[in-house]
Fold:
Amino acid sequence: MIEIKKKSVLIVIDMQNDFLPGGALAVENGDQIIDGINKIAEKFFNEGNPVVFTQDWHPKNHASFASSHEGKNPGDTIKGIYGIGPVLWPDHCVQNTSGAAINERVQTKYGIAIVRKGYRQNIDSYSAFFENDHQTPTGLSNFLKGLGVKIVYICGLALDYCCYFSAIDAKSEGFEVIFLKNLTKGIDIPENNIQKALESMKNAEIVIIE
Ligand SMILES: [Zn+2]
Structure:
């Protein structure tokens, strides 16, 4: 188990039923990281460091859903819509559905907060820090700064979307960022997206722990 530095937070991204095997937007083998996430969350908790969970939380007919755009299918791209895409997704994580629930095996009891994102009809939010216009904050950055946090550890789903964008934004917000690669799984759409995300994080001086 890794050593956890002081003034750290663990952010557990989107461990929701729709992103797990059997869900609407399942990440392959996403369930395999649950036990490891529980272990590290428990360690953060026991050492007095905060743990924060995020939850993708869309209204019905959210603009990121392919079904909201005539003639579009999940996986299709769309351009020119502010704060959306380019990839369109199947309907997923609709508010108050079982798909949107954080999986019951995930020990949210170690968390001090759950940040919900993507709740505005016409804008998506991959990052835990900013919506996809890269301007509208979720509030998480100031919340963490208020707690005196300097170092952000990231795990959860999916590596090349919500985890990746959260890591990049955390770095740009002035946090030291540690990416727990073995506690994430990726979607890899389009092809090689995972590799690209990892390279881009390395270039941004994010520490990636294998
Ligand atoms: Zn979403």
Observations:
- The radius of gyration is 16 Å.
